[in-house]
Amino acid sequence: MSLKTFSKTLFLLLSFAFATRATYNYLTKKKKEEEREPRKIHEVIMFSYTDQETKKSKYSRCMISHSMDRLLHYLNQPQQSLDICMYVWTNVDVTNAIIKLHHRGVKIRVIIDADMAFTSGSAIRRVEKHSIPYRWMKSTNLMHHKFCLVDTLSENPLLSPYVITGSLNWTNQALCGNYENCVITSEKLIVQQYQQEFERLWELFKPIVN
Q1: Which of 69, 93, 145, 146 is catalytic?
Q2: Which of 30, 83, 134, 136 could crosslink 114 through cysteines, CB 3.0-4.6 Å?
Q3: DSSP 62-128
Q4: Which residues form the signal peptide (predicted)?
């Protein structure tokens, strides 16, 4: 092999090695940056009494629908805070999930409609026993919101605050019998507007006193 051919071959090999290394460094850096960014969450869950298929779930002792499993998945994700604004709340699986979060140290606040707070089967009795703060307002106007906010009080940049909202009350009828919808999104502007509404009502409403 001539010196010229050897030099050319060596140059090509070094160029290939350099390009391979540069590509590897770029992809590694990009992956690390993606891992540092909060994940984006966008999902719609539809509930219907025609959804007859049930499955085992780590979130319930009973067989539950895929839709219920997805809702419980999101309700088990909070790391720092969970703010709940719910017109009616009676479902046991949801209540169990919230109480487990409370015992894990997640900060929980609850706003509920005054007339629905102590209806038959209301979860508020159990919430009260576990010293989870909750508020209402006696009024002719219903507190008809149905949403909750996950980790919006956290300062951890790796967490993805999100809101769960829609037509869905946390009742057996809504979860297993009605046509209902539930939207989960981490879209920042939308989450911020729900958070503003929750904070406004939290200041406006009063703690429940026996």
Answers
A1: 146
A2: 136
A3: EEEEHHHHHHHHHHT--SSEEEEEES-B--HHHHHHHHHHHHTT-EEEEEE-TTTTTSTT-THHHHH
A4: 1-22
Tell me which amino acid residue 123 is.
Answer: A
Among 152, 150, 179, 169, residue whose Cα is nearest residue 76: 150
The verdict on whether 102 is a catalytic residue reads: no
Catalytic residue among 8, 100, 144, 206: 144
- Residue 157 — pLDDT band, cuts 50, 70, 90? confident
Q: Which residue has the higher pLDDT, 193 or 15?
A: 193
Structure tokens at 32: 């690390």
Tell me how far apart the alpha carbons of residues 74 and 69 are, in angstroms, rounded to a whole number.
Answer: 9
> Mean pLDDT lowest for which of 12-21, 41-50, 79-88, 128-137?
12-21
Place of tokens 């809101």: 163
